[in-house]
Write a structure and sequence with these properties.
By secondary structure, this protein is of the alpha+beta class.
């Protein structure tokens, strides 16, 4: 959770206090000593309101089950990611993945187990990708990662680390696998809509291969 609301609240109150102290000095020739009780109360109120704002922003941008960013956050911020990548002359990977046979997990083991699987995958994604990457729950059992890179080897290492974590973990059911598809900006396309469409097509191509071999 960020601190923007709290910083803004405290800054606003501090400005009010400075204005009041300046007014008193200019009109009465002296500056109040210390911080009077009303000013202290205003600081507390400013901090509280800022904290509530930060909480509301955090909840609006996060998936309630996994704690990852949600679709809304991605759509609101993806153009910033494109602009940053263009400015730094980096490439940007749009990665989609979903859980193979997730419906069977829910049907056979229950939705609570399905939720635990999604939470675990979320933790493995956070562990595999960098803090500056966007890791989001795109919907259902589908996840999206936006990752900036200069060397595709580094990107592949992140994906490989995640795949290794999936294989190395002990799952309650008989193994678990995911289908992954990616598209690269700007080599594959330059709009998010086109890139997400290509990543989705690549993911389902991988899923079809998985289904034909199980």
């Amino acid at each position: 959770m960020g601190y923007k609301g709290r910083i803004t609240g405290i800054t606003f109150v501090a400005i009010i206090i400075i204005v009041i102290r300046t007014f008193v000095k200019l009109n009465f020739g002296e500056t109040p000593h210390g911080i009077p009780l009303p000013a202290s109360i205003l600081m507390i109120v400013g901090w509280y309101l800022g904290r509530e704002y930060d909480k509301s922003v955090y909840k609006a941008n996060r998936d309630s089950l996994t704690g990852l960013f949600n679709r809304r956050y991605v759509l609101d911020n993806i153009q910033k990611s494109f602009s940053k990548a263009k400015r730094k002359r980096n490439k940007l990977a749009i990665i989609l993945l979903d859980v193979n046979d997730f419906k069977q997990i829910n049907d056979n083991l229950g939705h609570e187990t399905g939720d635990q699987v999604l939470k675990c995958i979320s933790d493995l994604l956070i562990d595999s990708f960098a803090s500056e990457d966007i890791v989001a729950r795109w919907g259902g059992d589908e996840f999206l990662i936006v990752s900036s890179f200069t060397d595709e080897t580094m990107l592949n290492q992140k994906v490989s680390h995640f795949k290794g974590s999936i294989k190395g973990k002990h799952w309650r059911h008989n193994g678990l696998s995911v289908s992954i598809g990616k598209a690269i900006y700007p080599s594959d396309d330059k709009t998010f809509e086109s890139l997400i469409s290509k990543a989705d097509a690549n993911m389902y191509r991988f899923k079809s291969y998985h289904n034909s071999n199980t």
